[in-house]
Amino acid sequence: MGVPCVRVPTSEGEATRTALADRDLVDREHEITVESGDLYIPVVDPARVPAGYEVVDRDVPARETQTTPADLLGFEPSYERLGDVVILDEDDAERARRIADAIVDSDLRARTVVNRASKVKGELRVREWDVLVGESTETVHREYGHEFALDIAEVYFSPRLATERHRVVSQVAADERAIDMFAGVGPFAVPMAGRGAEVVGCDLNPVAVEYLRENARRNGVEDRLTAVEGDVRDLTEEYAGWADRLVMNLPHSAGDFLETAVELAGEECVLHYYDIQHEDDPFGPGERAIREAVADADDDYAVTVETERVVRSYAPHEYNVCLDVRLTEH
């Protein structure tokens, strides 16, 4: 009898596995298999697999017994993987140490284990870490066929947004001109350039910009990606009216940069605007802010909201959301 599996190209395998694991959908009693360029990821409940994934029945072998952290602890610990770094979010230092030791003693591949020691803070959006195992906080993360070198102690990066990034990047055409206004190490910018777009990525964090340049080279898109260190508001002199697409992934304060976004927008431009809002009205404040910025601009644009999407829960009664908005110059 076949086992329900999500079938994806191998280039999308790790990001898909992570997305399914975040929803507790990965069937750990059966092996993930590869055939003819496709990865087959067994799932426990095909009815809960998000739309957009292909589910097929397939004969896959039962998984050989491996020692997991849960086997050693007697409970299922919560952690994230970013390359070969395992990330914990434990308030109890003793519990964090127990989990780190179990990860080392298990069959889980990990070079470094860290525990969050602070919230993301400052205009460079970095956090402090307690390094429990290993020494280096630098790693290489693979996502939808691209590689991203980064140091989690020096830059901001969330592996949980892989599916959302892929959704946006999948809309990009080869002849586009795109600006990632808060690019970080390039998880939006590099794949957009990989689709043939001409991309400008801007960030205040000089370490992030160096990684952005390295990641452009690592993925063979350095000829189509311009990395700029500094405030995105300084781009308007050179890139006014240039962009066909703008990514504004700075949820807490993207609204402060809407005037700049309108200045950068070309005659027709899609804006991916990220926001944090209360569940009672998750999309209204962002749409109103965009319309107000357009109304105040010198150029006259029609504003069309094409997509309203809840990306994830952020806090009790608050959502991280995205609005895909098309600006069309009259």
From TrEMBL:
Q: Which residues form the SAM-dependent methyltransferase TRM5/TYW2-type domain?
A: 79-329
Gene Ontology biological process terms in this record: tRNA N1-guanine methylation
Answer yes or no on keyword Ribosomal protein: no
Query: Is tRNA processing among the key words of this record?
Result: yes
Q: Which InterPro entries match?
A: MeTrfase_TRM5/TYW2, SAM-dependent_MTases_sf, TRM5-TYW2-like_MTfase, TRM5/TYW2-like_N, Trm5a/b_N
Keywords annotated in UniProt: Cytoplasm, Methyltransferase, S-adenosyl-L-methionine, Transferase, tRNA processing
UniProt name for this protein: Class I SAM-dependent methyltransferase family protein
Organism expressing this protein natively: Halobellus limi
